[in-house]
Structure formats: structure tokens, C-alpha cells
Design brief:
single chain, mainly beta, Chitinase A, domain 3, six-stranded antiparallel beta sheet, 2 helices, 6 strands, about 35% strand
Length: about 120
């Protein structure tokens, strides 16, 4: 798969994690607390501005779900290898309310995640 283009979303931002499968994979299923290898792009919900992309670094990334923001911990389990899922994550499940010290605090975030492998 190629780097996804995230189209601007309309309407109000969700108040809970909104997960949508763009491509349903047919490989192993990601488990809560497991280790995943992914490619991803992240954009700000309001502006559509990209703030992070493993694609732009030229390599996927592997990490345990337990070390990630709550929105990823909730939104990735159940995904299958080979799949692509869009997550829209409110601030409470991302980097917290505005003024929280993180540059993305107070922001609703949109990620498109490609699940490459699970361990």
C-alpha cells in the first residue's frame, strides 16, 4: 500500500474513539497489550495538517500498544494484518486537554494506520 491521503473530515469531532476499517486485513489479529508493527499518518482534525508520518521517515515502527495513547490502545485491537484503519481520537484519549504541555494537547487527531505485523 502507498501512503494514505487523509481527506478533511466534516461535522463535529467525535467524543469517543471512532474506528473505521478502510481495508480489512486477512492476517493475524492485533491483541490488546500486544506488540504491533505499523505504518501511519497523523493529521489534526480541524486543520487537516499532517503532524507525523512513519511513511515520511521511510520505515515502519514497532511498539507495544501499552506504551501508546489510549486511542491507539482502544482502536487497534481487533485489526488484522494487511488492514488499514482510520482512527479519530478526541483529546481525552490522545494527549489530554489544551494546556497539557504536549504540542497536540487539546486536539482531536486523525490517524490512518496500516497493520504490518503483530507479535
Amino acid at each position: 500500500m502507498d501512503k494514505p491521503i487523509i481527506e478533511p473530515l466534516s461535522g463535529p469531532a467525535p467524543t469517543d474513539v471512532d474506528a473505521t476499517d478502510l481495508v480489512v486485513g486477512d492476517g493475524a489479529e492485533a491483541q490488546a497489550g500486544g506488540v504491533v508493527e505499523v505504518h501511519y499518518v497523523g493529521v489534526d482534525f480541524e486543520s487537516g495538517q499532517e503532524f507525523d508520518s512513519s511513511w515520511d521517515r521511510g520505515q515502519s515502527i514497532e511498539f507495544p500498544l501499552t506504551g501508546l495513547i489510549a486511542g491507539w490502545q482502544e482502536g487497534i485491537p481487533g485489526m488484522r494484518v494487511g488492514g488499514r484503519r482510520q482512527l479519530v481520537i478526541p483529546p481525552e484519549k490522545a494527549y489530554g486537554p489544551a494546556g497539557g504541555g504536549h504540542p497536540l494537547a487539546g486536539r482531536t487527531l486523525v490517524f490512518v494506520i496500516d497493520l504490518l505485523s503483530v507479535n
